[in-house]
Each structure stands twice: as structure tokens, then as C-alpha cells.
Design a protein that fits this description.
Blueprint (H helix, E strand, L loop, with lengths): L2 H7 L6 E5 L25 H17 L7 H17 L8 E5 L5 E5 L3 E5 H6 L3 H16 L2 H5 L8 H7 L10 H8 L6 H17 L6 H16 L7 H5 L4 H16 L9 H8 L3 E2 L7 E3 L2 E4 L4 E4 L5 E5 L2 E5 L4 E8 L7 H5 L13 E5 L2 E9 L4 E9 L2 E9 L4 H12 L2 E2 L2 H4 L5 E7 L6 H5 L8 H8 L13 E7 L1
Parallel strand pairs: 1-3, 2-4
Antiparallel strand pairs: 3-4, 5-17, 6-7, 7-8, 8-16, 9-10, 10-11, 11-15, 12-13, 13-14, 14-15, 17-18
Helix pairs in contact: 2-8, 3-5, 3-13, 5-9, 5-10, 9-12, 10-12, 10-18
Amino acid sequence: MSKAFGKTLGAGLLVLLAGCTSLPGVTPSRTGGQNVPPITAPSDDPEEDAIGAREHPRIVASYGGIYSDRQAEIMIARIVGRLLAAADQPNQKFTVTILDTAEVNAFALPGGYVYVTRGILALASDTSEIAAVLAHEIAHVTLKHARARTNRARTNEIVDKVVSGVFGADTATDQASNRSKMSLAAFSQQQELAADKEGILTAGQAGFDPHAAARFLGAMGRFAHFSAGDAGQDDDFLSSHPSTPDRIQKAVETARAFFGAPGLGETDRAGYMAGIEGLSFGDSPAQGAISGRRYVNPALKFTFEVPSNYTLQISKGAVVGVAGEGEAVRFDSAEVPASMGLEAYLKSGWIAGLQPQTVKRESANGYEMATGVAMTQDWSFRVAVVRHEGRVYRFIFAAKFDSAAFAKAADATLKSFRAATAKDLGLVKKLVVRTVTAGSVDTADSLARRMSGLSRGTDLFYILNNLYPGDTLVAGERYKIVTVE
């Protein structure tokens, strides 16, 4: 994997508490983003309510939809109720949503919209850690940070930045562009630290372990490095956020200053483990699955395969991949009127630098397709679109230098797009979080071996449970494993 692109592909998992999310709880959002429950409590800023209501459906759509899990929702609702009372906001209406994505993320919108991903639920190990996340997000809302952030949206991934160079002025029907435009980019360092402090105070006053924030920041840092394949942290990300060690130290200092040494406050590990039992892990089957070089979408029943030098990953509503230094591919979809031909769509203005004379109609495996070439100052693009069951899907290949090999790879990928067979669909596996009770002779190493069937499963076990090889376990306590079901 290219180091430059590899670092960025992992950046989405580095958002940590710095790019917040929310869960269904106080006002469950169970609508899939179509009909947002109204915020009925009095607001001192109706414009903030309008911003949240407008952006909520876009957030839900961009992060894979709403994840429905009744026991997790009830757990979150109870936590939020306690936090709001402790924050002296008992009448404030918050809409908390669990997003169906593996990203470890949490964020907030103006108007009391708070989001957490199921990925962050899988990483936390007790109730106090999720309380710390939610308290941090509530703090962003009450401190009016979310409103300010909506005015500074930016893209966090290099692949997105590269592809955005190809988009022209008319992006109204472009899903990837819409995601970038409404992306809730990073808070400032000062805002993050202020929300850290306010969140720790609120969680501690609500009776939760105030040291959980520091503990979970450490776990998220470990998971970020694991997910990035040790490619290192993204410099652009760190330039606008406090480093994890710095935030951890400040979180420890805040907890000690106001509440004392660790050991006080509720953690409720047992209750939390019960709340996440059976939680989906990893990529959602509804969003498709990666099997080696192949992407399979079981819901829409299609598949395609990239050349051997590409590494695929599902990232923020798209399939992205990298190959070598300075070469990438993105696969996504767009709303295109049925009356518009694919050649006309390529020429419709959404691609900057398109060479109209290169646009041509093609077909493969019974599908209508069109291809074209675009050039910008720094990048060469091979762009292809295919229509499947009335929807248009796009392959956007980007390279620093055009070449016959680059063109061949793009063509081979496009021509591999076909209907999925039963064998293809069998490649899609469901990963689930289960909890197991440690016996008197169990160690972290012995339980970690129960995940050895997964890629890097042993390492993942240690991170999900915030353990290290050789650690002793507490007999009778429950620990997380991921199983294939």
C-alpha cells in the first residue's frame, strides 16, 4: 500500500472523539433519515434546530444508515438521561442516533443531534467509557461548538481530496461531493480540549468514572494505529487536533483535579457487556463486503474485482483502493435521471478536466457502460460509469502519471463488474461481537487465540479489550471476542 494514501485511508478511524457521533436514546431516531423527530424543547437559537434537522438525513445516509439494536439503544438512553441531568440540561431535547458503520467515531450537530457509531460501541469496554464519549458530544452542543464547525467542513481523506479535483461546479447529484460539503470537519484544538474538560466534569457529576475519558482516548489511539496498518498518523489530522498523548494527559489532570485518583465512580462493565452482546462488527453486509481483491454487494447483487496490486477498503459510503505510490481508485454511486445517457452524464459538468473526445460507450457482462479520460494539473483520471438496476455507479481511477498499465487496470476493473453469483454472495460473512466469561486459568493470550481465525484477530482482541499480551484476567469477568456467524 502506498504510504501516502495508506496514511489517509486510516485517517477516518483517527477522528476519535474529535469528530463526534450519536446514538438512538433520548429521542430515538429510527426513521432512516426521512422524517426527523422534532425538537420540542424551547431553543434559544431556532436556526441551530434548522441546521440539525436539515443535515440529519444527510449524515444518516452518508454513514450507512441507522443501526437498530434495542438493548444498545436503551443503554444509551439511560446514560444520556443521567448526563443531561448532571449537565443541568434536563429539559433539553437531544436526538441520539447509532450509525451503522464500523468507523470509530462520534460527533454532534447543532440543535441537539448527537451521533455514535457501532464501531465506537464495539471498542468501549464499560459504561463509563461510552458515557465519556456522549458527555464530550453533549458538551460540544451546549458550548455551541457544533454550530461553528458546520461552517468549516472539510474532507479528511487524501483519496477524497484527489477525487474532488475531478469534480466540476455541478455536484448536486453527487453523493461523494455531498458528503464532503456537509462533512463535519474537525473542531479546533481549543474546542476539543474544552469539550474534554466539560465532558469529564459532567460524567463525573453523573456518577460515572471520570478517568474513563483518558482510558478510552488511549484505546482509540491504539485502534487507530491498528486500523492504519502502522502507516502512522495523518499529519493533516494532527495539525488541527491535540495529539492523543496530550489529550490523555490533560484528561487525567482534569479528572484528578476535580474528582481525585482513579477508583471512584461507576464503570458498570457487566451492564455494558450485556448491552453490546450480538453487536455487528466491521463492514455492514448492507454496504457490501471486501474479500481479497473482490467487492461484493449482497443487497444489490453485483460484484467487481481490482487488479492484484490494489488494496480495497470500504470508507464513508464508497469503496476505495490504493496501488503503489500515487495511484488510487474510488467506487461510488450517483443519482442520474433515467432519461440521461451515460455518455451525456460524463459530459454533464461534474468532471473537471474531462476530454470530451475520449468519452465512448461500452458494454460488458450485459451492462451499459461509458468511459472517459480527465486531466488536471497534477492528476490523470480514468473515469467509468455503469448502470445497474436503474442506478449509476462510478469508477474513478487516479494516478500521478497516465500509462498503458494504468489504463489497462482501469479497464479490467470496469469489465469485471457483473451480477453476483451464489458463490460470490457466500464470500460475505457477518462478524458479531460476543462476550465470554474468563475462567480461573484463562489469560489474555488464551482468549485472544479464540480470534486467531480472523485477519490479525489476536491483535484485535487485545485492542478491543484494552489488554496487552501476557495480561492476567479477572476470573468471572466478561471479555469481548469477534465471531463469524
